[in-house]
């Protein structure tokens, strides 16, 4: 009688020995992905995989248990949760091994997003060096807009003679954050034209 009472529970729960670490889950969870290795292993319990069990009756899976947690949790609730100390590439490798196609897509998207975020860096700036005459400085500073900021002014003397009198020449360094960028390209349809119009001479 006791054995009969335990039989339904025993068939519902599955014990897994992944690389020496034990995991317990239900057949319903493990069969969320019908084509996955885990579904074939636990829900179609037949000769197809030729799986071994240890002395406790747990299915033996020769894989790294570190990355199995995110795999099992995904099957439980459908969300991809990876601890910061875990490499996403490791989770991807296991998702591919267990043949969980939807999870493979999710991890690849996460890796791609992180690579894009890393390549952009925390904050990027574009710098421009502009040459102008002394009389143009006031106009330039007062009309600078669209995110351009004044960084540095360098005097390069008055070696250029324009006929009547020498005019002091300056190099003006300005910068702008790439906060509206896509793949590092500044979306600035009018900035270049504005700067050229203001300063007339560009280096």
From TrEMBL:
It comes from the Eukaryota. GO terms for molecular function: cullin family protein binding. One of its GO terms (cellular component) is cytoplasm. Residues 12-115 form the BTB domain. Pfam families: BTB_2. One of its GO terms (biological process) is protein homooligomerization. This is KCTD2 protein. The lineage of its organism: Eukaryota, Metazoa, Chordata, Craniata, Vertebrata. The gene is Kctd2.
């Amino acid at each position: 009688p006791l054995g009969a009472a335990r039989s339904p529970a025993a068939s519902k729960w599955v014990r897994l020995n992944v690389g020496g670490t034990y995991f317990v889950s239900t057949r319903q969870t493990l069969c969320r992905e019908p084509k996955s290795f885990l579904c074939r292993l636990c829900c179609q319990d037949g000769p197809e995989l030729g799986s071994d069990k240890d002395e406790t009756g747990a299915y033996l899976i020769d894989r790294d248990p570190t990355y199995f947690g995110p795999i099992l949790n995904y099957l439980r609730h459908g969300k991809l949760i990876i601890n910061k100390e875990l490499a996403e590439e490791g989770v991807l490798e296991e998702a591919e091994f267990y043949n969980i196609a939807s999870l493979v897509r999710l991890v690849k998207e996460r890796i791609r997003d992180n690579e894009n975020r890393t390549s952009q860096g925390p904050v990027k700036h574009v710098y421009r060096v502009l040459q102008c005459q002394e009389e143009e400085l006031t106009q330039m500073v007062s009309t600078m807009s669209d995110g351009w900021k004044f960084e540095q002014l360098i005097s390069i003397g008055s070696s250029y003679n324009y006929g009547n009198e020498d005019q002091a020449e300056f190099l003006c360094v300005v910068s702008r954050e790439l906060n509206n960028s896509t793949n590092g390209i500044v979306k600035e349809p009018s900035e270049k034209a504005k700067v050229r119009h203001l300063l007339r001479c560009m280096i």
